[in-house]
Amino acid sequence: MLSSTGSSLLWRSRTPPPPPPPRSLAYLKALSFPFSSRLGFMNKTTISPVSCLAEISSDINPGWSEFAQNVSGEWDGFGADFSRQGDPLELPESVVPEAYREWEVKVFDWQTQCPTLAQPIAHTFLYKSIKLLPTVGCEADAATRYSIDQRCIGGNKLSALAFSYSVTGSYVAVWPLGNNQLELEHCLINPNDKESRVRIFQLVHLPETTTMLLQSVKVFCEQWEGPFRDGDQLGGCAIRSSAFASTPTTAASVVTGSWRVLLASTTFDSGCIQQVNGDKVVEIVREEKDLLLLPQQLWCSLQETKDGERVFSVGWLFEPRHAITSSCVFSIDSKLKEVTMGRETALSDDFYAAL
Question: In which residue ranges is the amino acid composition biased (Polar residues) (predicted)?
Answer without folding.
Answer: 1-10
